[in-house]
Amino acid sequence: MIATILRRLGMAAITLAGVAVTIFVLLRVVPGDPIAMMISPGASKADIAALRAHYGLDAGMGQQFVVWARDLFRGDFGVSISMHRSVLELLAERLPATLELAVAALTVAVLLGGAVAVFAVLMSDYGAAPIVDTVNGLFLAVPDFIWALMLVLTFGVLAPILPLSGRIDPTFDAHFVTPFYLIESLVTLRLSIFWDVARHMIMPTLALALPLAAVITRVLKESLREAMMQDYVLLARLKGKSQLRLVMQEALRNAIAPTLALTGVQFTFLIGGTVIVERIFSYPGIGNMAIDAVINRDLPLIQGLTLVFGALFILVNMGVDLLVTLANPRLRHG
Amino acid sequence: MFELSRREALALGGASFLTSLMFGGSALAQTSDKLTIAFNVNLPAFDPTVGPSSVNPTIQAIYRSIFDQYIGQNVDLSLAPGLLTKWGWNDDKTKVFMDVREGVVWHDGSAFTPEDVVWSIQRAGDPKGGNPVAFVWASLDNFKVEGSRITADCKNFDPTIFKWMAFLTGYVMPKAYYTKVGADGFEKKPIGTGPYMVDEYQGNAFLRLKRNDKYWGPKPAFETVIFKFVPDSTSRVAEIESGSSDVTLEIPYEEYDRLRAKSGLAGVCKPITDIGMIFITNVEKEMLDQNVRLGAIHAIDKAAIAKRLLRGYATPIDTLDAPGYEAYDPSIKTPYDPALAKKLLAASGYSPKKPVRFKIQTTRGFKPKDYETIQAIVGMWRKVGIEADIEVYEVAKHFELRAAHKLAPMAFYNWGNAIGDPTTSTGFAMFSPSPHSAWKSKDLDAMIGPLWGEKDEAKRIAGWKAVDKYIAEKGYVIPLFQYSQPIVYKSSLKVTANGTGALQPTLVAKA
User: Fold this and answer.
1) Which of A13, B75, B226, B373 is positioned for an S-S bond with B36, CB 3.0–4.6 A?
2) Eight-state DSSP code of residue A84
3) Is the CA virtual torsion B212, B216, B222, B226 positive or negative?
4) Per the CB < 8 Å rule, is A152 touching B400?
5) Hey, what CATH class is A87-332 in?
6) CB contact under 8 A, A164 and B242
7) Phi then psi dihedrals of residue B169, to 5 deg
8) Which residues of A touch B437 (CB under 8 A)?
9) How high is the mean pLDDT of chain B?
């Protein structure tokens, strides 16, 4: 197992290196020169050259890459052109906000999607399946940003009971030690602050979670139905176990593996979805920062963000593979 | 003993959850001494003199809250005393003098001095410092301080130097503090001399400011000002409609009309120094034909587009110097005249059956109804014998193509000019050496060139008006509209519209 993990880590490093090269080259090939974005109309060629040199963009692409790669190995991701701060520092500040949001959305999606799937299987004898399928189809068809806008209109305007933007009430003097606001406020038992942070997360979490919950429902429901027709379930049924126990204790364990694998893949999409959802809710995570970085053609920041997104995708997929292996004895011993 | 079943406990938990959802937040509770603005852009960085945000006109509203400019600016664009109380040139305009306000303190309590002014100008003028308009500040040299008066030599005479002191990057920075904490330290804890002090900042979320009780100017109306960074216009509408914010701006005109009609809300939508225009690039042969250019200009019914697409919140213009600008000349006209357009195009052999073809580039969603405006214009052109293909591009691509002189034959964009001077509108948009010009020709350069250093102000302005007239006659650019800026606010407030478009908290008061 350890050898497998080490091999996967090695492959992950190679993949990340590939991502780094690709994004570095792409950013310099596609239109959108960061210096052209900020040069004054009265600037002379010498002024433009000075500005280009100031941001280290005057050297050739190869030389720029060598400098960037060398600094990366030293833990220096460069300085953001638009924010005038260390990219690493910015990522360390913003990534936890996105992670808290993504994990909350995943949790809600798993619980909601799982509960609906179980409910649909339990109620299959009562004709609930078509209703569940129809509602689920609707949730599948509506993308996260549409959910976000609908939530804004519903809980922000029509019944304004939830905060519309940000991560915490701007009037609070919270003074966090870590950038994990939700966890820190809970651990330090500052419950009013915890509740405020949680309230700010409800709408973006739902916007991200609902489409994923629908995917989980669909896959888990089918897996459960299949499992419920197996002999071991029939045997348990003959032993007099209730329908709920049959589903939860017998079928679910065998049905969970494909759902788990799919959830992992979908989770990476969910992290991608934070970009637009964070924008709509003015949530200060890396997704929101990524849009500004692209608008400003902030090359060091875009490069840093891409590496982080890449690393997240790789780590999530590795984690899912590991979980699937642990959950399935055939894979574990195969 | 009272006992709860599991089901009852869950029900109780659910009820308390809903109750706290309904009443747990403070977002709706606005105290009268706090102003919350749902702002349309994020503040990436605090240093107002370097980087892309330093030349972003919208962000100046925030910078002007924290920092002071060398010279202030009234809402009608006229200059006003700022940290400089007097300024001017000597008789032969080879030197400048600047009288520095006394008794001003920085937010950390240290004294503001003339050395801060000198250091700020020298730092801004350093070509290695990252100031995008370093060339402006580098025109001053050999500073001398005597008491509260600073004098400096003009390396080259720039008639707009004092206007720049109220414009982009024209902010005084704290010499001693900045030198001590460095660029990184300044970004983490910025100080200025402005009416508000930075209290809390969360990039992409909010900026909280506290009133500077030691401010040298009029006492700001609010103890606390919160800028919420809400770039999505739907979310900004929700912010003001739900009462979560007190003021917002730059929302769709349809929403502006709807919201200001609602009870408890009010609105103001006045013209600002932001215009929509179509650049003409003199590279492809079609654009070298004056009949085609003028035909395209006379075929556009700007008034109809302004009325129908922009709901009347735009003023048609005929020159890049819009109403309110110093060189605005209302006598210069390029009227809507489709018959004339047809005649001009026919003279070059073009007609609706045999149209001239070219590409026009436009942004989509960057300015109000930008793409729709170009669609309407293309439709009008089709009727007179012009067939234009629309290409949508990003703002970043526009800048790069424009700097490389590779824009399409025609390209829609907007141009801001918060000081209203002709050099920063017609000048930079039409003078060949400017990286932001698209039409590059010697005849125009010969007219514009001498005006950069013209010392007689009346002659300078008259010269720019002549340039505008010549451009209109030749059809070197297509000015379209001067935009109005929609601002919606709670009717318990009073908002003074700013001609520059900078929604400064100091322009908001309690009604």
Assistant:
1) B226
2) -
3) negative
4) no
5) mainly alpha
6) yes
7) 65, 5
8) 41
9) 92
B-chain CB neighbours of A168 within 8 Å are: 202, 205
- Whether residues A169 and B27 touch (CB distance < 8 A) is answered with yes
The C-alpha of A101 sits at a distance from chain B's nearest C-alpha, in angstroms, of 15
Residue of B nearest to A196 (CA): B25
* Residue ranges covered by each domain of chain A: 87-332
Q: Is the pLDDT of residue B13 over 80?
A: no
Residue B155 has pLDDT above 70, yes or no: yes
- Tell me which of B189, B242, B258, B401 to substitute to probe the interface with A (most A C-beta atoms closer than 10 Å): B242
Q: Which residues contact A318 (CB under 8 A, 6 or more apart)?
A: A5, A8, A9, A12
Nearest to A170 among B54, B206, B241 (CB): B206
Q: Quote the pLDDT of residue B31.
A: 53
Q: Is the ipTM of this complex over 0.90?
A: no
The pLDDT, as a whole number, for residue B3 is 53
Nearest to B127 among A47, A162, A166 (CB): A47
pLDDT digit string (tens) for B289-332? 999 999 999 999 999 999 999 999 999 999 999 999 999 999 99
CA distance A152 to A163: 9
Q: Do A84 and B183 touch (CB under 8 A)?
A: yes
Q: Identify the three-state secondary structure at position B243.
A: coil
Which of B135, B228, B404 is nearest residue A165 as measured by Cβ atoms? B228
DSSP code of B25? Answer: -
The reported pTM is: 0.88
User: Would you state the pLDDT for residue A332?
Assistant: 62
pLDDT, one tens digit per residue, over B90-118 is 999 999 999 999 999 999 999 999 999 99
Do the Cβ atoms of A41 and B205 come within 8 Å?
no
Q: Which two tokens stand for residue B31?
A: 């105290």
Phi/psi of residue B192, each to 5°?
Answer: -145, -160
> How does pLDDT run across A216-237, given as a tens digit for each residue?
999 999 999 888 888 988 888 8
- Name every chain A residue with its beta carbon within 8 A of the beta carbon of B403: 33, 36, 39, 48
Using a CB-CB cut-off of 8 Å, the residues of chain B touching A161 are 21-22, 25
Q: How far apart are CA B65 and CA B77, in angstroms?
A: 17
B204–A36: do the CB atoms touch at under 8 Å? no
The secondary structure element, H or E, covering residue B479 is strand B477-490
Interface-testing mutation among B36, B204, B228, B233, with chain A (most A C-beta atoms within 10 A): B204
Find the helix packing angle between A2-29 and A61-73, rounded to 10°. 150
